[in-house]
Design brief:
The protein has 105 residues and is α+β, with helices and mostly antiparallel strands. The chain is built from two helices and four strands, in the order αββαββ. The chain has helices at residues 2-22, 64-77; strands spanning 31-37, 41-48, 81-87, 90-98. The protein has a four-stranded antiparallel β-sheet, with helices on one face. Strand 3 (81-87) and strand 4 form a beta hairpin. The protein is globular, with a radius of gyration of 14 Å. The relative contact order is 0.24.
């Protein structure tokens, strides 16, 4: 149950950042959430077709704190990894985490 809560917190943060930043110059866009279940780990992808951002600029004033919290949850609590891919055609955030007992996720 703790893992599910942590995953939900990370997805919520990523979606909030998407809706807050991705579509600033237009009133519409596409957002996707994909879960891929692997034998030893699961992969979750939150993507959009928004304006993108500079992935190396971790201290962006209006999203830096939430981003750091999401990264800490993935790395420390879920023992996973997180990767940001972004350019002018959109952003994808991919995070992997170990599979939960009994293959429930």
């Amino acid at each position: 149950m703790d893992d599910a809560t942590d995953i939900a917190l990370v997805v919520n943060e990523l979606l909030q950042n998407t809706f807050k930043h991705a579509f600033n110059n237009r009133g519409f866009g596409r957002v996707g959430v994909t879960v891929l279940k692997r034998p030893l780990y699961s992969e979750l992808i939150v993507s959009d077709d928004g304006e993108g951002f500079d992935c190396d600029k971790a201290d962006r004033a209006d999203e830096g704190f939430g981003r750091r919290i999401a990264e800490n949850i993935v790395k420390q609590k879920l023992k996973g990894q997180i990767l940001y891919l972004s350019d002018s055609t959109g952003t994808s955030v991919v995070f992997t985490f170990r599979c939960i007992e009994n293959n429930t996720i």
